[in-house]
Design goal:
8 helices; 13 strands; seven-stranded mixed β-sheet; 32% helix; four-stranded antiparallel β-sheet; alpha/beta; globular; 30% strand
Length: 288
Amino acid sequence: MRNNENTWILTAQCPSCLGTVDVVTRFLAENSCYIVDIQSYDDRELKLFCIRVQFRPLNDEFNADVFDQTFLERAKAFDMTWTLTEPNHKTRVAIMVSKYDHCLNDLLYRYRTNALAIDVAVIISNHPDLKALAEWHGIDYHHLPITAETKPQQEKQVLDIVKQYSCELVVLARYMQVLSADMCSELSGKAINIHHSLLPGFKGAKPYHQAWDKGVKLVGATAHYVNDDLDEGPIITQGVQAVDHSHYPEDLVAKGQDIESQTLARAVKYHIEKRVFLFGSRTVVFAD
């Protein structure tokens, strides 16, 4: 559901207990806020509850600071944490990329056409190849080469740039470098990666060619939050497509890149629309 003008998003999370839905919906009603859409989930294994509400204030004097202050009194009894997102908020994004440009091109198209509510503030790469594409879009491009010896310094530069541009989200759009544990910790819950779903069977160079040689019948992609387990962070979304004997390696590459682009864009969309809740190593995703 698209977040339209004057529609706010409230997301909240707390331990499971009686009255969690009521404390949110009753507060909104008492403050003349009309609920447009509501989704909730209670995890019986982890005993955690989460809720996402889109609402429209019926009072022209709605004030977010006052809302937070008054809701605090209700929420603290449930040990509830929450975020309030204003209408038409555009998430400031840093995109990291190496040489493959299919995911970057897709994100920039969605950014340019307002299909994604993002503000691409900066593009960071360990190669100079895609600088012209960034410049065409009027986006700053930082080329930061990296070697095993310079990795700590390069990652510090990256984090400094992310902070300098006030980025809320980092998107690894086929950034072909393994992030250190320290950097993953710094970006926990704020960085999304994409990789093909041929792992762990087909690693390294030309995975689609390896897959073709073994006669795979499915290709796909996985978008997840980064953590210090390589390509094993909490999954946000996945995509898959059937293939057969008539698909040659170049066909698998083309299909795989399409799925990677679509899957990454969908994960970014879910994140910026506050549809994703982190439950340890898992996610709860309220798809639209």
